[in-house]
Amino acid sequence: MRRAPDWPKLTVVVVELAMYLNERQLAISVLEGLREDLTSAHLNNGSRVLDVSDLRQYIHEQITRLRTNAYFAGALYGNTGGKGQGSHKSDGHNGKADL
């Protein structure tokens, strides 16, 4: 006798697979963008990115720039009607660089 599929469990598996594929695609997109940026990347002090230490510094500077822009955009324009994350909410980061 054939068993009927367990739809709730199957749905969870499909949703988890879709989330995994979305995360993977996002990671690939970020890395491709970083690869393109590094061809002309300069640190805030004007020097080129030459080694791993410079790469870490460059990534840190870019993250700081994005966070600063997001903070000021939130302060200027406020939350978007409940959509998105307000600047006052934590992103789970403790403020220390993971170098």
General description of the model:
It contains two helices and no strands. By secondary structure, the protein is mostly helical. The chain has a domain at 40-77.
In short, what is this structure?
This protein is an all-alpha fold. It is 59% helix and 0% strand.
Count of extended strands: 0
Mean pLDDT: 78
Structural class label: mainly alpha
Write down the Rg: 20 Å
The helix content is 55-70%
* Number of H- or I-type helical stretches: 2
Main β-sheet, in a few words? none
Give the termini distance in whole angstroms. 57 Å
String of helices and strands: HH
- Residue runs with pLDDT of under 50 for 5 or more positions: none
Principal-axes geometry comes out as elongated
Strand proportion, as a percent range, falls in under 5%
Features:
99 residues, mainly alpha, 2 helices, single chain, elongated
Walk me through the topology.
Blueprint: H1 7-38, H2 52-77
